[in-house]
Design a protein that fits this description.
With 779 residues, this protein is of the alpha+beta class. It has eleven helices and 44 strands. The structure holds 2-acetamido-2-deoxy-beta-D-glucopyranose (4 copies). Pfam families: PSI (PF01437), Sema (PF01403).
Length: 779
Amino acid sequence: MHPLLPLCVFWLLPLALTLEEDSSLDCVPRRSVPYHRDNAHLFHEEGVFNYSTMLLREDLDLLLLGAREAVYALDLNDISKKLASVKWEVTQQQKDECKNKGKDPETECKNYIRILHQTEDNKMYVCGTNAFDPECDYMSYSKGKLTLEKKGEDGKGKCPFDPFQRYASIMVENNLYSATSMNFLGSEPVLMRSSPVSIRTEFKSSWLHEPNFVSMAQMPESYLSEEGDDDKVYLFFSESAVECDCYNKLLVSRVARVCKGDLGGRRTLQKKWTSFLKARLDCPVLESQLPYIIQDTYRSCDPQKHWKDCLFYAVFTPQSDTSDLSAVCAYRVSDISKVFAEGKYKTAVPVETSFVKWVMYSGEVPVPRPGACIDNEARKAGITQTLDIPDQTLQFIKDKPLMDQAIQPIGERPLLVRRGATFTRIIVNRVQAAGGEMYHVMFIGTEEGTMLKAVNYDGEMFIIEEVQLFQPPEPIKILKFSNVTGQLYAGSDYGAAQTPLATCGRSLSCMDCVLARDPYCGWDKAVGKCVFLSSSQRELIQSLKEGDASLCPDADPVKPMNRSIWPGGNLKLRCPSPSNLAKTSWERHGSPLTTSTRLQLLRDGLLILNATDSDTGRYRCLSVELSKADEYTTTVAEYQVSMATAGSGGRSVIPPQARMDGPSVAGLQVVVGLLLVSLLALLGWNFYKGHLPLPWNCRKKNREQSQETHEQGGLNASVKYQDALRPAPAEDKPLVLGANNGRNNNHTGEEAVAFSVEENDNPQATLPSLQYIDDESDI
Ligand SMILES: *[C@@H]1O[C@H](CO)[C@@H](O)[C@H](O)[C@H]1NC(C)=O
Ligand SMILES: *[C@@H]1O[C@H](CO)[C@@H](O)[C@H](O)[C@H]1NC(C)=O
Ligand SMILES: *[C@@H]1O[C@H](CO)[C@@H](O)[C@H](O)[C@H]1NC(C)=O
Ligand SMILES: *[C@@H]1O[C@H](CO)[C@@H](O)[C@H](O)[C@H]1NC(C)=O
């Protein structure tokens, strides 16, 4: 971004206030789960792409999935089972017209399904971009068939023309609320309700200024309302800030809301919202001078509680590419509605010749309050519908739809920050843990095709795991949750995936199960397994806030494995730690090993180079993980290493020099040298980008005591991230080294070095992390 941007002083002040010492950024997932087809049920149809619209029909046990030129009805319990589908393709004539208007016939001139809602007659309303000529239709499902009625309704203002443009929509009592652009050029953004009376926003930059629509939600605010208030529809989006006196374009996140009963004004604001109010939404992420940009929201309401206790969770990404942090912030609905109901307005005042400046309006505010819904007080004054609102109030709101005050998240800081992953979507699930307490678990989709599962335990950010759902990595474009099946559904350009809320079986030991701090999982002593909470009647061991594994029974001793080496040969002993937060160490005959020229301590194992007699003996790999409660040590692996003798054991060991394809030691040195160079480049790049050093982290204490592999700030995070994308160790694919830090893909080319190293028992095992060792000797 431009150096002049810091001139946006209005933004800097609140930021300065958030620069707190204890801010904890850059949270690392405890467990990284590489892609595996058992991670999720997948759906993909040959030749069909862009699976980015979903509708859950729990009443029919269906997941409706909208893709390019097709809608699918999938089994809600297993989406790999297709029950029905219907094609909705553009005609050749439509394609030609679209092409003649300068659009790409192979991408833009297709029909992308963008809207799927249930209607009150149990049918579905579906809209598509239809070759830059949006159209809507009704669809029904019966006797295993999906049928489009071919009504050909105009989709203008409901569905975008441009398939690459973001939009939002919601169906409330059979009325479609949509936020999109209503013309071919994409220059007329609207928030619109199509029925019973069609009303929309004004085409004024003070209402919507180059917006990027994100999501919509409704709030039943009339329920038990003493003021006789109306229900509301909220819209989340980002736009160019009109109120910033900057030289450059500055994006801000917004929340806007309208009243459901709005019919527009009589003379002023005819067929326009009289209740459109918007406010800036802040998610103050330390390190950034520019506001973060909202990407998705999730409404989380406790059915037992008042609507005022509902929360909106939102994911944010930076607007400049100098940062690669993503964040989650949560907002109280009551805080948002208070700003709209009581806050001050902003007003434009002319300064000098052609400029206006947006300042707080401190003059008199007309009655009834501009932008308010019709309530008891208005009714008393004879105003029973928005058509009765006096012009003075309407003129005010027409000119000043922006509130002065910005909305701050709960705690005035993010719930979660992660470096190197770009958040795209979020779902939040409430779960009652073994101790009876309720937790909000966040499921976050990323641009890299992974899903994060995270909880904020009393201010401590904790990412339980990061699971790779799509391989090759595809951005997650939609995320839904069904409380009937208890399953999550994710859509990407390539396909759709279904996963359970938890796969507790990934923890094989009690200690791992407890230290995972997953509210859905607990250790069942009777069966000796980590199990899903609601699937067990027995008392389970769980310690979410503390990670206290002291109740765990002693783990079974690990069985030592036999390995042989050849004089001058190389051997890798694997030690896959279950946790990224753990520190691993090695012992030989009970005394600790340190890195030397012939012994390399890797992230996932120990590498012995140019072996000699002295390398034989009993090796043990320990994993030490620190939780709030204690430090826990587990033995991950044990090896008995002996010198190979001719015909020893069943294992045949070939001398290294006899191997056809194994790299010689000299070759290895070349590789190490290359790595060193690429590492220095990476390090330099990280310094240049300002990723190093990083003063904060997620689990400060933990990280400080962590081993060399955990001490490198941004570099470390990026490498971890790379690890997350690594295929399962068992798959033994060569690894591409050179950390790719999230969004900035343009660096991979120069840093990528692919290689593999020989291992006695595992000829294709990879050597993923030599850079740590080199790096350590560097520091
Ligand atoms: C649709 O999917 C294809 C293939 O993955 C992708 O290249 C394209 O950008 C997607 N189009 C939209 C509008 O998302
Ligand atoms: C699922 O959620 C809906 C509201 O979203 C609620 O009415 C219903 O009772 C929930 N069902 C279950 C099984 O929790
Ligand atoms: C390892 O070797 C020892 C003695 O050579 C033998 O007793 C033991 O069974 C072997 N263990 C395995 C796992 O093969
Ligand atoms: C391997 O070790 C031997 C002695 O232990 C030494 O002479 C030789 O140079 C070493 N080879 C390499 C490639 O380091």
